[in-house]
Amino acid sequence: MGAELAADEGRNAAALAACRTLAEELTELQFPAPRILAFKEGSSESRYFVSRLIPAHKDPPYKQEANFHSSKHLTTEQWTKLKSSFVHFDDPSFCEWIRNLKVVPPEKRRSCRRWDLNIDLLGVIEVDDMAGVEQRQNKSGGGKYFFCSGGKKKEVKKETGLGLSFTKDENFGEWYSEVVVNGEMIEYYDISGCYILRPWAISIWEIMQTFFDAEIKKMKVKNCYFPLFVSPGVLQKEKDHIEGFAPEVAWVTKSGESELEVPIAIRPTSETVMYPYYSKWIRGHRDLPLKLNQWCNVVRWEFSNPTPFIRSREFLWQEGHTAFATKEEADTEVLQILELYRCIYEEFLAIPVTKGRKSELETFAGGLYTTSVEAFIPNTGRGIQGATSHCLGQNFAKMFEINFENEKGEKGMVWQNSWAYSTRTIGVMVMVHGDDKGLVLPPKVAALQLIVIPVPYKDADTQGIFDACVATVATLSDAGIRAEADLRDNYSPGWKYSNWEMKGVPLRIEIGPRDLANNQVRAVRRDNGAKTDISRVFLVEQVKGMLDKIQQNLFDVAKQKRDACVEVLKTWEEFVTALGQKKLILAPWCDEEDVEKDVKARTKGDMGAAKSLCTPFEQPELPEGTKCFASGKPAKKWTYWGRSY
Ligand code: 86X
Predict the structure, then answer these.
(1) Start and end of every Aminoacyl-transfer RNA synthetases class-II family profile domain (predicted)?
(2) 207 vs 623: CA distance, rounded Å
């Protein structure tokens, strides 16, 4: 499109019309769709357009009110009805939509073609930023237009189209969306809540998968694959467990143009798919334990705020489903798996987690007890469940008649577990380690641990430098380090630095004329920016040492930040204050379900209610006579509380 428009240069009206068509095409699948009303020529490198702004579900209430005055006069009921009448009411907000257009970003500012519609330069349209934005009343529709005038300020902000337009501290949500896209992990897709996982994300997933898969195989778990589709009869079989989830189940109702006689569900999880066959395959004690795992996708049609990796409508996971003759064996496995999950978070992703048990209210319906690893996102003050390992007891065995005969010929029911972790792990990693320059990948999961960049000055021995880069990569690769050289000749070293920083590569090696002369290289750490000159004689040991240090440092810094958010408290007043300060709260609790419901009700609001996150296995001392922070009854345990994802 950019090339076509460039050819059109000079034919102003035609090019404007082309821009408009393009923008309208791009918005066709969006609902609510921002309607482009006119394109305007700005300075030589800026274009802006007038658009009708429709409030987006994702916007906070004050913004919705500001952008859509009539909403003030709607009752809550009318408002809810209006919102739910949108097919994709949770589509990205207007701001996000504009950024997502990403139309032909110029490679370099100087070569920026007149007609390249560069959305980075279109940063002038910033609904958040009311300065430089005029509001105009639309006579015909009564809706509000945002008309951008001038906008010089933002135009110069980004020279290369690299870099982020939000900081992690100022606007965490927008920062996150931008980082996962610019870091090349995610591409947005035209179905809300569904995302394209690009190689940069999948390679992280595969590294974790390789570890976990090998570990469960040591535990004699076998991989298998069950179908994606579930017949309605089977899905309904375990009613109690399905009931609350029913609205999230996606259905296939047609093949081609004809309605299916019986609609087919898409698995949201595979209990009902797998357990009828457990019943068939398990006859006697020799068939036990049965330990199966599958790596697959699942679909849950969620309606609340979709977020790449963290809450998407389709995601990848492993789900393990095991059956034992005794509860003791099941109990042991629950904790073995939980330890593997801790390992994935702490040792691979460098994210501190808390192992613990979920409250009654948070336990998987149909299970006996649920254990989890819980992480925390300091910027939003939210806890996030990292992975779960459930003991299902004999509930499913009853429902699906999974019985066996023991050595003495007596009938018994199996004890079951199920456990899962998903691509959410990657989202937590981005949120915890990412910074204002982009992604920060822990070396253990980075597809590329090290990038070598030649820095040839004007009269330097360019070939010599390039050769040194290639040789450096060869040496490091032979030593098992994931390294590559960026020898592209159409980008400057500075551009490459920013690019690989955005992608989060843990270590950068620069080789310039001075390095060549001294038989050394310069290493720059992504986590703290520290620069070290390394002699090529000790290259491998030094680099290995640095990668280990980066891995450790990421964990230490993340732990320090999380620990700084922990607030140990004992009263309701302290609880409310701490919640307002985005704390991770550890409080003594009576462990009663009604009290947790009450905590939820009393903390309801725009930001979402507080809930229990887990009761940590590692319990501080609980002095005799300690009272529950919420009910004043005798406390039974210390439990983590907070808002959560
Ligand atoms: C809960 C429980 C469990 C196997 C795990 O956490 C580990 C792996 N499954 C999953 N859960 C549901 O059962 C569920 C069911 C339906 Cl029908 C749904 F639409 C959404 C669900 N979400 C979670």
Answers:
(1) 227-442
(2) 44
> Using an 8 Å Cβ cutoff, are 204 and 186 in contact?
no
Can you read off the two tokens belonging to residue 117? 């519609």
Is the CB of 298 inside a 6 Å radius of any atom of ligand 1? no
Return the pLDDT at 458.
78
CA 268 to centroid of ligand 1, rounded, Å: 6
* Residue 233 pLDDT class (50, 70, 90 cuts): confident
Backbone angles phi, psi at 598, to 5 degrees: -65, -40
CATH no. for residue 452?
A: 3.40.50.800
Identify the DSSP state of 348: I
Angstrom CA distances, 46 to 76, 152, 165, 409, 501, stand at 41, 9, 17, 82, 27
CA distance 311 to 228: 20
Check if 126 has its Cβ closer than 6 Å to any atom of ligand 1: no
User: Which pLDDT tens digit goes with each residue over 179-194?
Assistant: 999 999 999 999 999 9
Say if ligand 1 is within 6 A of residue 239 CB: no
- Domain hosting residue 30, numbered range: 2-159
Q: 240 and 352, same structural domain? A: yes
Q: How far is the CA of 334 from the centre of ligand 1 (A)?
A: 17
Distance from the alpha carbon of residue 25 to the mean position of ligand 1, in angstroms: 38
Cis upstream peptide for 289 (omega within 30°): yes
pLDDT of residue 39: 61
Residue written as tokens 């456990």?
419
| 147 and 35 in a common domain | yes
From 62-66, 167-171, 282-286, 503-507, the region with the lowest mean pLDDT: 62-66
pLDDT digits (tens, 9 = 90+) for 246-278: 899 999 999 999 999 999 999 999 999 999 999
**Model confidence at 434: pLDDT above 70:** yes
Q: What is the pLDDT of residue 337?
A: 98
Cα-to-centroid distance, 274 and ligand 1 (Å): 13
Pocket test of ligand 1: the residue of 245, 251, 333, 338 to mutate, having most ligand atoms within 8 Å of its CB, is 245
Q: Specify the pairing of strand 222-223 against strand 195-197.
A: unpaired
CA of 298 to the centre of ligand 1 (A): 10
Report the separation in Å between the CA atom of 382 and the middle of ligand 1, taken as the mean of its atom positions.
Answer: 22
184 lies in some domain: no
What is the count of structural domains for the chain? 4
Q: Are 253 and 214 in contact (CB under 8 A)?
A: no
**How distant is the alpha carbon of residue 474 from its chain centre?**
34
Residue 188 lies in a domain: no
- 226 close to ligand 1 (CB < 6 Angstrom): no
